[in-house]
Amino acid sequence: MFTGIVSEIGEVTDLKKMKGGQELSIKCSFANDVHIDESIAINGVCHTVVSHSEEAFNVQSVEETLRKTNLGDLNEGDPVNLERSLTLEKAIEGHIVQGHVDTTGTVKKIEQDGADLLITIEFPEEHRDYIVGRGSIAIDGISLTIARNEGNEFTVAIIPYTWDETNLHTKKVGDRMNLEFDIFGKYIIQYLRNREGK
User: Fold this and answer.
1) Are strands 79-84 and 21-27 parallel, antiparallel or unpaired?
2) Looking only at Cα atoms, what is the longest distance across the chain?
3) pTM of the model
């Protein structure tokens, strides 16, 4: 479990194809402190550490993960958002994030609005029920608030600190972003759908 507060931008240093997926090596400052089986969110996708050195840790992604997220788009040298899993000693400063990406969205527009930047993302129509104005959403693992939504597009406002301290500053129109909708909203909608089915 995570909070959507990115702790560091890591760097993909190696990608190896493996049967049924790929193995990623990611350089970061806390690599020497991780342990095998630790959960780390990479661009919002929960992964298990399979090995590590003092400078980098390795994770494996199966084909299903590569299809459903933007991790299959990564290349060596790409920056990735990293968050270590929540502990009882940490404050929940964002919102509850599972690291289970629901779908990807596409960046349609990036605009300056005073000191902030507005990013508009298009997402698949079937997920419209999960988008709520002023509600929470995790985008590439970053806990953000939906500023406005219309149809199958929504906009988030990014403060300069978040822009600089995550990989958002590397994004451009057309890029795919991992989306995880609010877990409480998903449970409520599933409950209502089940009741309607009865």
Assistant:
1) unpaired
2) 55
3) 0.93
